[in-house]
């Protein structure tokens, strides 16, 4: 059993398809009272609009929902500039931006778009350097210096400072990435497709071990979960593929038994209908059931 005691939050995975009503969907998410909107980052995907441009527009047309890249593709986003973009969005949105960051995937597509193809070791080295660079840029200091193999700062002047204590959330799954997260990041962003519930205890344990070794409280690290499935009116057809009561039970279990605290919905079928059912029927019931189980 692993329950880190955080209040559960809920969001929506907005696929940046240029042909979809993206801003209308974002406004619906905001009006339904969900907490987050995450947008995947694949600049080489011709059907998608740019993630940072979309996040900025979403922040502009909403009032309360938080936004984040789920997750930014580091090989195509130089970390100092990425840090500036994230801090700027946070300032302009009134503290409603967070930074999800990944080491990179789909290397042929990255290379075709002008990025550098990296080995797994190089990708992790670069990610570790990027976290350090971003922290420096967010400090707002001047004369910033960093001498890494992949990234450097040479007397840089930083600003603006984020409007709130922005998190760096890593989309990692290997031992080295999880150790880096435990030592120096603020959150973990796995997806149910590659980190199913049965794998979560092992992966969380790696994060916790690294956090404790660095003198950090593992409970301070946020655990987000991109959840793919469909809410139906019929019987269960597998994990997160079934009626509302199944979703409530499974998400509650993910909080109190598996340590996850934030669920970013990536539904199949009619997106707006799935969103409405999720917000009206699943979310409040999960909050109540989590509270009951913690108190019991």
TrEMBL record:
Keywords tagged on the record: Monooxygenase, Oxidoreductase
* Record's keyword annotation contains Kinase: no
Q: Which InterPro entries match?
A: F420-G6PD/mer, Luciferase-like_dom, Luciferase-like_sf
Q: Enumerate the transmembrane spans.
A: none
Does Oxidoreductase count among this protein's keywords?
A: yes
GO molecular function, a single term: monooxygenase activity
Domain Luciferase-like, residue spans = 21-227
Gene3D superfamilies for the chain: Luciferase-like domain (3.20.20.30)
Name this protein carries in UniProt: Luciferase-like monooxygenase
Lineage of origin: Bacteria, Bacillati, Actinomycetota, Actinomycetes, Streptosporangiales
